[in-house]
Structures are given as C-alpha cells and as structure tokens.
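Exercise: predict the fold of this chain.
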Amino acid sequence: MAYEVLKKADLMKSKRQLAMVIDLNKCIGCHTCTIGCKRLWTEDEGMAHMYWNDVVTVPGRGYPRDWQKLGGGYKDQMPQKGTLPTKADYGEAWEFNYEEVFFQGKGLDTHLKPTGTATDWGPNWEEDQGAGEYPNSYYFYLPRICNHCSKPACVEACPRNALYKRPEDGIVLQDQERCQGYRYCNEACPYKKTYFNFKKAKSQKCIFCYPRLEKKVANACARMCPGRVRWVSYKEDKSGPVYKLTEKWKVALPLHPEFETEPNVFYVPPLSPPQYGPDGSLLDEPRIPIEYLKSLFGPAVEEALNTLKEEMGKRRNGGSSELLDILIARRFNDMFKLEV
C-alpha cells in the first residue's frame, strides 16, 4: 500500500475494531502475560528494555517511569506535545561482577553486585508497594499494552506514514521499512507504549498478536493468563464479551480517557475492602480512594463499581447475573470471540 498518498484520516480508518477488556479484580500480578509476550515478540536485538505487555503495581510511577506526566495525546481535539522517555526510564539491563565472584577465587571475600552504571529503575521496580498507611494501605495490579486507539496520536504524529490502523480489525501497526526513527510517535503516545530500538534506530510496538488472531488464536497475553483476566472480541459485536462489558453493562472503562485517543483496551475497575477505623471497626469508606480511581478511569468509575456491587448482591441472594457469568469466565474459550 502506498501510504504516502493517503491522508491521515485514511490511515486511522477501520471497518471494525478488535478490543480487549481486563478485569483488575482478578489480576494476581504473576506476569505470565508479560513473559508470554516477551518470549514471543521482543527477544530480538535492541529490544531488551521493551515490554510490550507489562504489569505494574499502582499507585506508582509506572513503566516507563512517570509515563503519566510525559504528555502527548489530545486536549480539546488538539494534539499535545509529549516528552521522550529515556532509556533509564525503562530500566537498562544491569551488569554484575560475575567474573570476580565465580572465576577469580574471591567467593569468600566478595558478593554478587551490580557494576558500572546500573540504573535505579526497571519495569517492575515498585512491585507490591502501593500507597496509604497501615492498616489502610492499598495497591492493585495494572496490566498495560498498546491501546490500539480509535484516534491514535502516534499515527497522526508520524511524518512518514509508517503507522496505520489495519482496515479489517483496527489494530495499529508500524511499517518498519517506512520508519526512519524520528520518534514523533514516541512523543505523541500519551501512554508511552511505543518504544525505540536504539540499535536499529526504529520505533516498535505491540502488534496485538495479529498473526495469532489471523489463525483465530487469542493474543498471547490473554491466552496465557491463569487468572482468566482478559476478554477479546470486536467492539461492535453485540454478542461478544467486550460489547457486553463496555456498552451493555458499562463496567469496563478506558484508562485515562482525558487523553482523547479513544483507547480500545478497557478495564473493570478494582473493588475495594473497607477502611479500618482507629478502634479497629470497619468504616463505610473504601480503602482505595474513589478519587484515585477517577483519576485513572474517569468519572464513570463510580457507576461501574456500583453496578458490580449490585450484581454481586443479586448473586448472593440466589439470583442470576449475566454480568457475573461473563466475569467468572467458567469456559475459557467464551472469553475470545474473534469472528463477527
């Protein structure tokens, strides 16, 4: 396809949109999704720092470090200038004194330690830290991939037209032959989910496992998840789980909708245990502050949590709930509807 003759609007068009829902109430932070993605897609030269799928503990600074503050996306439909993360923000691989410890006979006198310019950050640097004070401390796990947005800032920013949405499913891909490594896409993505290969001088990103999807096999991150956390289907398919969770039940929400890129990865927000009072009694206040959840998922999060609680109440009282049947995911294959 001769992308140079196409308008940006054409590069953003698709007939339909594959999307994903991730239930944060079920994620246990095991990183199986991350390992599956890493082994499949980012073991090539110059990709050591890339985690197309990552799972971070929130609240926290995230991966890359402080990505929420690096800008990009849109505001009032106008593109916003972003800032490039550094290699240190991703966390470079450490070097250790293996030679000294294992081969120079100094095992009793020294210990294994980082050498050179070891960075003070990595993709899972803040695991299980969170926020708040005992006994009301809190955290939860947040898996992230490229959102394959309906209005992708990376596509609009690329002067080479190297990024485009696949017309048949809306997956955002990158033509490596056209990419010249200008990194405007890295600046423009507000989620900082495009990466730069410093050895190849090319930008690279999650491809939503499209070669698997073409064989009607779900994404590696979704298929390998032991917690049955992820659902994948076309957003417009009313019989699919994504439509039911995002449109019918409205319990799955985009991350940082204020970036205005219309992401197609959605999250079921985490329910929260109640806070403890000074005397040890349970208070009518959630341990995860609702304002923090609003800062992540927007004002609709309150209604989504209320719906979850109402449907759980129905089930506890012996009633039925289509919503909970979807979220429980008894039949693994029902989570993936890859044909319209």
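Check your answer against the key: The mean pLDDT is 94.
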